[in-house]
Structure formats: C-alpha cells, structure tokens
From TrEMBL, chain A:
Residues 226-375 form the Acyl-CoA dehydrogenase/oxidase C-terminal domain. Residues 121-214 form the Acyl-CoA oxidase/dehydrogenase middle domain. Pathway: Amino-acid degradation; L-valine degradation. Its cofactor is FAD. Belongs to the acyl-CoA dehydrogenase family. This is Acyl-CoA dehydrogenase. The lineage of its organism: Bacteria, Bacillati, Actinomycetota, Actinomycetes, Micrococcales. GO terms for molecular function: acyl-CoA dehydrogenase activity; flavin adenine dinucleotide binding. Pfam families: Acyl-CoA_dh_1 (PF00441), Acyl-CoA_dh_M (PF02770), Acyl-CoA_dh_N (PF02771). GO terms for biological process: branched-chain amino acid catabolic process. Keywords: Branched-chain amino acid catabolism, FAD, Flavoprotein, Oxidoreductase.
TrEMBL record, chain B:
This is Electron transfer flavoprotein subunit beta. Belongs to the ETF beta-subunit/FixA family. SMART domains: ETF (SM00893). One of its GO terms (molecular function) is electron transfer activity. Keywords: Electron transport, Transport. Heterodimer of an alpha and a beta subunit. It comes from the Bacteria. The electron transfer flavoprotein serves as a specific electron acceptor for other dehydrogenases. It transfers the electrons to the main respiratory chain via ETF-ubiquinone oxidoreductase (ETF dehydrogenase).
Amino acid sequence: MYDLTEDQEALVGAVRDFASSALAPHAIEWDQTKHFPVDVLREAGELGLGGIYAQEDVGGAGLTRSDAVLIFEEIAKGDTTIAAYISIHNMVVWMIDTYGNEEQRQQWVPALASMEQLGSYCLTEPEAGSDASALTTSAVRDGDEYVINGVKQFISGAGSSSVYIVMTRTGGPGPKGISAIVVPDGTPGLSFGPNEKKMGWNAQPTRQVVFDNVRVPVANLLGEEGTGFHIAMKGLNGGRVNMGACSLGGAQWALDQAVRYLKERKAFGKLLVEQQSLLFTLADMETELQAARGLLRRAAWALDTNAPDVVSLCAMAKRFATDVSFTAANAALQLHGGYGYLADYGIEKVVRDLRVHQILEGSNEIMRLIVGRALVDDAA
Amino acid sequence: MKIVVLVKQVPDTYGERTLDPATGWIDRAGSDAVIDEIDERALEVALSYKDSHKGTEVVVLSMGSKAVTVGLRKGLAMGADSAVHVLDAALEGADVGWTAAAIAAALTSTGFDLVIAGNESTDGGGGVVPAMVAERLGLAHMTFLESVDISADQVAGERTTGQGTLRVHASLPAVISITENLPEARFPNFRGIMSAKKKPFRVASLGDLGIDPAVAFAGVGRSVVLQATKRPARTAGTKIVDEGNAGVKLADFLVAGHLI
C-alpha cells in the first residue's frame, strides 16, 4: 500500500509538471483577480484530469480512486482552488458515467472529460445545506419534459459550466423523493446569481443557480426517479476523499515553504530552524499530514474495493485531512511571520482556500455524525 | 516513415549539478534525472509530424544506465511507439566517440528514415554526437536546425551561423539535430502513461548490437578527464554608466560576448 507503482509515479510526475508550470506561477494572480482560468482547464483536460476515473470508451482516463487521491494532492500543490474545482467537475463526470444510460454517457461525458465543457454539481439550497434531503427545488413531469423550479446555493463553476447535475424533488418529502437531472447551459429559465464574494476559492466562481420553469427532456433523468439522493451521496464519498487530498496538497506545499524559510531566515544569531520550538512545530505538521495521507489512501482503497465501511472511512479521511491541513497551513503562515500574511508569499491564500474544505462536501460536523452513527450502529 | 529520436537522460537543470571530483564525471546520483529538454523538443518534432501523418513510427533511443528506463517510458507516454535502450556495463563513462559508435550500431539494428537529436546536452556534452553518428552511418547530417520541415523523401530546415542563416535540405535517410528554438514538448497524458508499458521496449547490450567492445572501440581513442575545476565564484558584473553613449557601450558589450 505504501509504495507507489511505477504507473502512479509517472502519473504523479506528469501532474507535477503540469501543476508547477501551468498552475503554480499564476495561482496568486488568479486569486487576487478572481480569474477562473477556463483555458488552463482545457489543458488539464488534455492531460486527462477531466475524467480521471471515468471509463475510457467515453474519453475518461479509467484510473482508480487510489490514483486520484495522489493526483489531487499534486494538483493542489500548484493551486488548491483549481484542484478543488477539478474534483467537483470529476464528480459530475463520474455521476453521468456511472448512473447515466449509454446514450447519456455518449452525449455528455466526452466533452466533459476533455474539459471543453465544464460541469457543476447542484445539491445545496439556501435553506438546505447539511440537511440536504430537505431540498425543495421541484421537477414536475409535463409530458416528455420535467419543469424545474427552485434555487441552488454555493454552486462551484456556475455561470461557466455547460452541464449542471441538479438534485430535484420529483416525489414526496425526504431522500426517496429526490431525482438527479442533467440541465444543459442555455436552457430557457436557467439563470445565475452574482459571483459570491468569498474568503478564499477566488479562482473559481460560486453563484446561485436559479430555475424558473426550466424545461428539460425526461431523457435527462439520471438513473430512476427517486434515486437522486443516493447518487448525490455516492458522488460525495469520492468528493470527500478528493477534497481531503486537495487540502493535503495545499498544506504540504505550505509546509515545504516553511521548511525552506526556516532554513534561510536568521533571528537572534541563528537560523530559525535551530530554534527547537519551531522545529517541533514542523515535526507536528509533518506527522499530521503523513497521518492524513495514510487515511486518505485507505479511504481511496475502500472506494476502489467497495469496502463495507467505505462511507465511514471517506468521512473520517475528509474530516481529519481537512482539519489537520488547515491547521498545518495556518502554522506555516505563523512560521513565516509577517511575510506569511502577505499575498506575494502564497501562504495566506492556501489558508483561506483550505478553510472552506472543513465546511463543504458535508461539513466536518456531518462527517462526525456519519462516523459516530456507523460506530454505534455496528456495535449494536 | 520511421523516425528515431535520440534522447539523453540528464540531471535536472532545475537543481544544483556537481562533478564527482574523483572521476571528473557529472554526479548523476546527486539530482533528479530527466530527459534533456532539447531532446524532448526533438521528440516533439517527430510526434507533431506523426500527428499529421498517420502511419509514422516514432522510436525513442537512449544509451545509459538502468535509470534511463524512466526517461524512455516518458517518451513512450508522450506518444512514441517503441523504445530502444542501449545498456552495457562496458559503456559506463563512454565519451562522445564510443557513444556515437554504440548509437550508430543501435540505429542500424533498429532501422530508420530519419534520426532527430537535440543539438547538445545540458550535462557533460560536446554537441558533436549527432554529427559523429551520421559520420559512422555515412549519411547526410544537418545540425543545429532552428526549424524543421519533414516531407516524404527529404528533410529541410534553417540553421543560424555567425554570418547568417543557412537554408539546408537533405534526402532521407538523414540525421538532424535541433536547437531549443523548436517548440516545447507536449505533456504526456494519463492515457499515454497507462499505455506506455504495453509498448515495445527493447533493451540491447553491445553484444546484441553485434559490437565487440574490444574490436569496435579499438583505435577509437577514449577521452579521459584529467582534471576538473569548480566553477569560480561569481564576480561583480560590468557597470555601464550613461554618459550619453550608454547604448553604444551596451551594444559593444553584447557584440563582444557574441550575444547579438
């Protein structure tokens, strides 16, 4: 489990080349100017980042979740925000590839896998976040069409995406009344709120998505009516592991910067790295990040093998990795002193970016709920 | 069309590179090994021809230690069809003459219409191997090309000399080397990486190539490093103070350094 295969070494190497040349040199500027680099995402698509674990017959790379967890850590070292968006995009691609019928797969996946088109995942609503199964966006059948009405909140990529997977209520209350429907951009009645002003994640747009009598063919339904919540949760298992890996990559980059800085910077007549208390901080950061890496790889393995405890493992990995990575990035900022607070050093950006990973893809409180319930139920 | 691209694995120029004081050879263990960037551009020339000419076969060929496998696999991941690795303990520390002899034999054994190499390497390099290979094969060579135009039966391009630009062409088969002026290489993509290990990968010893080192290298003098000197510490640069003629002084300085 601990040694990468020769293929994985090569995959990670290719991502490193891409992230260090196409992302890292621009990350600060994109953050400062709130620029969503759609052209660079196309390059990412050429590399294979658009459909990492989608099947090859529709343009995916056909890799495993164990590969993906390594890949996301590496992208995030270049730009955490772009890495996180690529994770969301892959969740959309995976859902269509996995739950779509042959026609839907052929229709949507190839352009998404190449990232010529981008995807957005629409679950959260203004009044339904952690309690996602309380969502109220409705899809009412009218002949061969669904008529969708409602509002989705905090939607990454909204306004730039071509494909929206929308969790809608087609039946009664609760999770069993929810269906997943694909809504293409440009459908009449589909509109977007203003780009939200955020603490971080500035290099990707976050908007409301508004549905006002949006009509789509019934053929755009993914899976069966009433399976949408199941699909949404399945997607999130992988999304959580990816997001943990994105946190880890950002924090690892910040730690690497801190090590370098402490080996150069002198105070009180010696290098900072010779101050034992600072060395201990580095040691704690390294230890916690390695622990997160181990847990993430374990969860990815559980996804690959469809292990019985996969949901709980993904939740543990997400909770732990996003928490310790935020703490490590914040420690890296502190170790840089005043420079850490300057945008030019890139550390404060990573801290701001990683903060939201503790909230999204299921907040870390929900992760504890999943882990705790599984523990109690198993023991019963 | 069968194009063989010569690639050399070198220490990454990104890091500090050092010489082994005992042998005077470059310390290859001291830094990450990568395909020389100019050779990647040579591969890009071949691959972009292949993009527009289906049926083109691209082979990456390298001589070096076991570690070269990684670089050749990257070449396959980028899109080459097969790889040839000349691996033989007798070649350790080979100089340009021995290297050219071994590569020429490997090329003869592999077969080719066109050989493309980088013009020089960023580690221990003399910038002469492509020409020496062509000499051994008895073929036309055009080196230091800054543009390349491949057609079915000939290769053409431009090379810059101190006096001007030469437009050159040669009938195939031929050997060319290219400069950094050619486009940057593509990234290997995931699909390429995963398919790389299914592609033919030939490891050939000198014996496999029909070379008996005792015979083949007899009389081919082999250069030996007598002494290696560390690069001197950087000294202060030249300051030009503008007294109304700074432009002229600057131009003179650049001309003296053959920089313009």
